[in-house]
Write a structure and sequence with these properties.
The protein has helices at about 1-10, 20-30, 75-90, 105-115, 125-130, 145; strands at about 50-55, 70-75, 100, 120-125, 135-140. By secondary structure, the chain is of the alpha/beta class. The model has no long low-confidence stretch (mean pLDDT about 90).
């Protein structure tokens, strides 16, 4: 939201495709001609940009194992909604069965490694970092593409 607010206020001239496509679309609809979309980022099951990870030594092997646990997500309504939907499609209720913890990207890998959270809905480059450093293992590959839409273009 902050990226789009900054664009609309004229504080920045452009943002990366991770500027939240859904919010960008709403901003464009409410302010025709103020926003121009040149690139959209998305993923599918073959080339995911998001997956759910747990620590490498965790006994959790599937999303069902998150009941009673904490799931880290990006901050904001968009990823809270996406996380809630992914959990619901797997018969889990956000903030009842699984506590959602909003974390800035710079804190996500450390939060999983330290045990502050039990799982992370990780987007690139966090997914690659978790794998490369041996910190995390994937329990739900291409989370959004396999539960919401394939391809999934909300980034």
């Amino acid at each position: 939201n902050q990226l789009i607010d900054a664009i609309m206020a004229g504080q920045v001239d452009f943002t990366s495709p991770s500027g939240a496509m859904g919010i960008t679309g709403v901003a464009d609809f409410k302010n025709p001609g103020k926003v121009k979309i040149y690139v959209a980022a998305g993923d599918d099951e073959k080339t995911p940009t998001d997956s759910i990870f747990v620590k490498s030594d965790s006994s959790i092997t599937s999303i069902q194992g998150l009941k009673g646990k904490k799931l880290g997500t990006l901050p904001g309504i968009q990823w809270r909604t996406i996380s809630t939907y992914i959990l619901a499609k797997n018969n889990l209720v956000a903030n009842k069965d699984v506590t959602l913890v909003e974390l800035a990207p710079s804190l996500q890998v450390t939060a999983l490694a330290s045990g502050e959270i039990d799982a992370l809905l990780a987007l690139e480059p966090m997914s690659t970092t978790l794998k490369a450093k041996g910190i995390g293992k994937e329990i739900l590959h291409a989370a959004a593409a396999t539960t919401i839409a394939n391809p999934f273009c909300a980034k």
